[in-house]
Amino acid sequence: MASRTSDPGAAGPSPSALPLRDTASDGLKIVIVGGFGAGKTTMVGSVSEIRPLSTEEVMTQAGVGVDDRSGVQTKSTTTVAFDFGRISLNDEMVLYLFGAPGQERFWFLWDRLFSGTLGAVVLVDTRRLSDSWYAIDRLEHHGLPFVVARNNFDEPEHSLDQIREALSLSPEVPLLDCDARKRESSRDVLIALVRHLQSLSSQENHS
Amino acid sequence: MIRRPVDSGDPDRLYTVTGGRTRSHERSFDLVTLIVKESEPSVGMQSEHVRILRLCSRPVAVVELASLLDLPVGVVKILLCDLLDSGKITARHPQSSGRGRQLPPPETLKRVLVGLQNL
Question: Which residue blocks in B4-105 are alpha helix, DSSP H?
Fold first, then answer.
């Protein structure tokens, strides 16, 4: 059985063809959140050293409104699929990039899957800005630092200032353009996130 | 024909793979905990355990195992608990991840930045 890839036609090494170094010991996580078609998998694939893989997690929740006297609990099952790739940063550190849907049911699993995440990239498709509102709201709720990247395939219709206003983004949240298909551009988005974390960290240390 | 190990869409069969356990110590594994094999598969071992050991000659993250085995992450964590308890694998847990809402230490961020700049 072949492992499931999110894009079976994509060229690239299979995971077994590129194992981690023997010294790899420290996994890190960055989550890329965005609506359908915003380019999450494209971004993961453009910087990952392996072809993006996909997996899923199942969560069983006790039903709401259970009649206690019956002693029977109704259960509902939520399955969330997500893509991922990885970058070996040095001999020990391996950065995993997760492409996660911004939809509501996904956030039930956030703590279980993504606790300890360094930060998030919100990938915005300007044709569907409203897809990003919920994700931004949830990230703020979870207190997770994030940057917003506009995935720009064509000549932009709006300025970044207009996007910032439309998303009601606070001035300290970095907002930048990217082309998720390009390795350097996707890398620069990740670098922007890490620099944002550094600036938050230095503010924390000086306050 | 290569046998499909379990049908991940069928809860009854997942129940069988995990021996009916649903939770175990799965919280001790993160998605990015790296798993390394410590010994070869033994005779009579459950086929999913054998497959995990075969995949882990070099470090492999829990999430990669789940994808390669085509099983939900939670099920893989339960299988890994068995292998860890019997000393067949070791687990390298994340060290640099932020704890809760704490940011990682500045040295960690610096190393991540350098790694990305070298891409």
Answer: 11-17, 47-55, 62-69, 73-85
Rounded Cα distance, A198 and A146, in Å: 12
Q: Which residues of B touch A28 (CB under 8 A)?
A: 32, 94, 96-97, 112
As to burial, measured by CB atoms within 10 angstroms (0-12 exposed, 13-18 middle, 19+ buried), residue B80 is buried
Length of chain A, please? Answer: 207
Using a pLDDT cut of 70, give the percent of chain A over it: 84
Q: What is the DSSP letter of A112?
A: H
pLDDT band at residue B12 under the 50/70/90 scheme = low
The type of residue at A64 is V
Structural contact between residues B85 and A13, judged by C-beta atoms closer than 8 angstroms: no
pLDDT tens for each residue of A116-154:
899 999 999 888 888 888 889 989 988 899 999 999 877
Task: List, in order, residues 6 or more apart from A91 with CB less than 8 Å away.
Answer: A21, A23, A24
Contact (Cβ atoms closer than 8 angstroms) between residue A195 and residue A35:
no
Q: Do A57 and B103 touch (CB under 8 A)?
A: no
- Chain A residue numbers touching B94 (CB-CB < 8 A): 26-29, 116
- Nearest residue to A92 via CA among A6, A27, A10: A27
A142 Rama class: left (phi>0) / alpha (psi -120 to 50) / beta: alpha
- The complex scores an ipTM of 0.85
Q: In angstroms, what separates the C-alpha of B7 from chain A's closest C-alpha?
A: 12
Are the beta carbons of A114 and B2 separated by less than 8 Å? Answer: no
Distance CA A33, CA A136 (A): 9
Q: Is the pLDDT of residue A66 over 50?
A: no
Beta-strand relationship, A75-88 and A93-101: antiparallel
Helix axes A183-206, B106-117, angle to 10 degrees: 160
pTM across the whole model: 0.85
CA B8 to CA A60: how far, in whole Å?
Answer: 15
